[in-house]
Amino acid sequence: MLKYINPHAVKPECVSLFTKEGCPFCVRAKEMLKERGLAYEEIVIGKNATTRSLRAMAGGTTVPQVFIDGKLIGGSEALADYLGVA
């Protein structure tokens, strides 16, 4: 449908972000995404999901864990590399 409406449009990226409250690395990841205009779904461990869910998805329990278009990017440093942040 998007190609029909605008053949030059780029499909928006689907971003999911696993976080925990009070995590400074999670705050950094959210800031990087916002600065680049990337909307994201935030999944808060302990509220929206458990560490078991995080382990099943990401293979570990550290946060943040960022997924873009279904691909695991990793934590805040991996996200910075992915986005080309110095």
From TrEMBL:
Residue ranges of every copy of the Glutaredoxin domain listed in the record: 15-73
PANTHER family: GLUTAREDOXIN-2, MITOCHONDRIAL, PTHR46679
Keyword Ion transport on entry: no
InterPro entries: GLR_AS, Glutaredoxin, Glutaredoxin_dom, Glutaredoxin_subgr, Thioredoxin-like_sf
Protein name: Glutathione S-transferase N-terminal domain-containing protein
PROSITE patterns (UniProt xref): GLUTAREDOXIN_1, GLUTAREDOXIN_2
Keyword Ligase: no
Pfam families membership: Glutaredoxin
Key words of the record: Disulfide bond, Electron transport, Redox-active center, Transport
Lineage of origin: Bacteria, Bacillati, Cyanobacteriota, Cyanophyceae, Leptolyngbyales
Family, similarity comment: Belongs to the glutaredoxin family.
